[in-house]
Amino acid sequence: MRTAPLLSLICVLLCATPGRAQNISPECVPAQEQLKQAESAAAQNDWQTASNRYWTAAQIAPACVEALVNLGVTYNRLNQTDNAIKAFKDALAKNPQLFAAHLNLGITYFRISNYDLAKESLRNALKVNADHTQARQLLVLSLTALEQFKEAATELEQLNKLTPPDAATMVALGQIYLRLKQYRDAVSSFEKALQLDPKAAKTHLLLGEALDNAGETDRATAELKRATELDPSLPEAHYALGHAFLKRGNLDEALAAFQKELEINPGMVLARYQAGAIYFQRDKLDEAVSELTKVIEADPAFRPAIETLAQARLKQGSINEAITLLERAVALAPTWPNAFALLGRAYTRAGRRDEAKKAFATAQKLSSEERKRLEKAVTKPNPEL
């Protein structure tokens, strides 16, 4: 997923402040003065004093769970996570149905990236108050971080029922559908988001990618062009457009798009690889070697770039360098038949016939094994290739 959904909500949720008691509960009356002092300190962002006062209030009135929850919130403000967790758990021990304690415990776990426990606490919060929007939003974020996308989609769909439609939620839902490879649902979600915010370049980009995956190449290309028009500097937009052109066989337009992406985002290895591969297809070997060398300098394990560079060097007559590259490729992917076939060709060019025979034999064996694997996979009820 390109960006975490609903990121704009994180600060709202994670920057909680202690609650103010409009009508103090009877259990808290003995600590009323301490609570007032704590609220006053919190209003001035004096979190140390606030935590001291809430702690004292909790000692004076042990049944005052509000003091414990607010103590936990101030501990979070002081980055004393362990103390915050203890305070919220102490509150829940006294009142297991206390929504604020479940919610703030979930927020605390989310802050320290303990998404499993955040999920558990937020689900408990929603058992108490199923209509609480922020708890469900943070639950979606936790599920997404855990890559539990089906559950995240379910929660977002529920969120749509609770709140008026908004573009951020629809984009988040679309991104989750992309991860689930439910491309038609993703298209629908992004289209709804664009009805609400038609000039959102990133949403046009995501819609283009969803359409491309759904096999609607023409519509995908139109959306991706729109994204680049709205924001010519949007990272990955020109790459995605180039990929759509490539699928249509429009190599000139694809190369231009990849080059534009590299102007904006020179570190994007995929765009540089695709540009190098097009140069190789066009027999522009010097340009291909230049781009592909940069790719494997940036990512030494990028096997497709290594193989294509080796083929370019082989065409240029640099046979030993090609062999070195292809030996590296087969070491990276010892079950990939194409690399061994290319290595066999390079050995043949070098006159190393025994090694060539071994490489070709390995390629043939691996190809046969791969064919059998595919044949077996397609006989399953739900094949996964």
Provide an overview of this structure.
There is one protein chain. The protein has 21 helices and no strands. It has about 375 residues and is mainly alpha-helical. The radius of gyration is 29 Å and the shape is elongated. The protein has a domain of about 150 residues: Serine Threonine Protein Phosphatase 5, Tetratricopeptide repeat. Helix 3 runs antiparallel to helix 4, helix 4 packs antiparallel against helix 5 and helix 9 packs antiparallel against helix 10.
CATH topology description of the domain at 1-146? Serine Threonine Protein Phosphatase 5, Tetratricopeptide repeat
Q: What are the segments in which pLDDT stays under 50 over at least 5 consecutive residues?
A: 1-14
CATH H-level name of the domain at 1-146... which superfamily? Tetratricopeptide repeat domain
Question: The biggest beta sheet, please?
Answer: none
Task: List the SSEs and their pairings.
Layout: H1 8-14, H2 32-43, H3 47-60, H4 65-77, H5 81-94, H6 99-111, H7 115-128, H8 133-145, H9 149-162, H10 167-179, H11 183-196, H12 201-213, H13 217-230, H14 237-247, H15 251-264, H16 269-281, H17 285-298, H18 303-315, H19 319-332, H20 337-350, H21 353-378
Helix pairs in contact: 2-3, 3-4, 4-5, 4-6, 5-6, 6-7, 7-8, 8-9, 9-10, 10-11, 10-12, 11-12, 12-13, 12-14, 13-14, 14-15, 15-16, 16-17, 16-18, 17-18, 18-19, 19-20, 20-21
Which key features would you list for this structure?
385 residues; mainly alpha; Serine Threonine Protein Phosphatase 5, Tetratricopeptide repeat; 21 helices; 75% helix
Structure, briefly:
The chain is mainly alpha-helical and 385 residues long.
